């Protein structure tokens, strides 16, 4: 046995984290044994507290600390414009841009028959109810630009357009700072199709 | 605010871990919110438990769960041969080799005047007492092959040799699988000096 049992257990638990192999887990474990006791306790407490206090927003299914998330509570935001994302962390990415002042709707994933995820597994029924109830005029399908995300965006467009909602899709194209030479042909094709006038 | 407060706190606590930047901290936090509740609690508990239960071995200052660490408790090990290391994790590295069947002594660092670490800050007095008491015949200075580790090894040799103890130093040289072309000159010089007959 390389570690005394409580250390072995800690290394094992840390190894379950994504991107944490046995070497990193060992480094983290020894770090947690070295820092002031309060710092280790504080991390443990933050984990438990996050699980105790974090709920889902009843309107958009983002993470929240109460009934509604901070975006749904923010009255300066435009409630008739809704950005549809797969996961709560996608909201963080969009908020970082500072380019969006509407509300969100978290589907909880994308349609993926191969993984057994159909429209019923996602918050699509709730989205439809919300669109009808809240007089939403425009939605932006910001699902990931992969097969499943594209299929989900098209599926949503087919459902929402008949309700008179404008359905938009985030642009695909070359990343800023990217290089034509190294772009894959699908991305470059999209960049051409989605060209904008200067 | 990008995250709801309990998530913000978790991300912040996770960011304090070594090698964990804000992006990784976010990924870990969202992972801990997604996994079954028991898995998150289990990690939190392992952290607290490690801090509650892990003590220092009263003989060698390795991490232990009781009075003595498992190496000091293991009667099949040779107690007259002691490997001196800087930190407990160095013991893990040596144990992985399967080449050593003696006991250990953890100094708690290396002599480094620039960091204010003199011999008094390390478990050197305890090592001297132990050498006298336990009839140790050989010690291996396995401090890191850097300036501080080398200085510490030489310091220990000067203290221990007069007591009639054989003081050895781990070999420096090219890492196995290494390449002469890319070896630095100090390492290659050491490899030549430490040559062994085939």
Can you put this structure into words, describing what you see?
The structure is a homodimer of 198-residue chains. By secondary structure, the first copy, chain A, is α/β, with parallel strands linked by helices. The first copy, chain A, has 2 domains: 5-53, Helicase, Ruva Protein, domain 3, CATH 1.10.8; 75-169, Dna Topoisomerase Vi A Subunit, Chain: A, domain 2 (3-Layer(aba) Sandwich). Chain A has 8 helices and 6 strands; from the N terminus they run αααββαβαβαβαβα. The first copy, chain A, has helices at 5-15, 22-34, 37-53, 70-73, 88-97, 124-134, 147-160, 185-193, and strands spanning 55-56, 63-64, 78-85, 102-106, 138-141, 166-169. In chain A, the strands form 2 sheets. The first copy, chain A, has a 4-stranded parallel sheet with strand order 4-3-5-6. Chain A has a two-stranded antiparallel ribbon with strand order 1-2. In chain A, helix 7 (147-160) links the parallel strand 5 and strand 6 (166-169). In chain A, helix 1 (5-15) crosses helix 2. Chain A is globular and about 65 Å long. Chain A starts with a helix and ends in a 5-residue tail after the last helix. The mean pLDDT of chain A is 94. At the A-B interface, helix 1, helix 2, helix 3, strand 2 and helix 5 of A face helix 1, helix 2, helix 3, strand 2 and helix 5 of B.
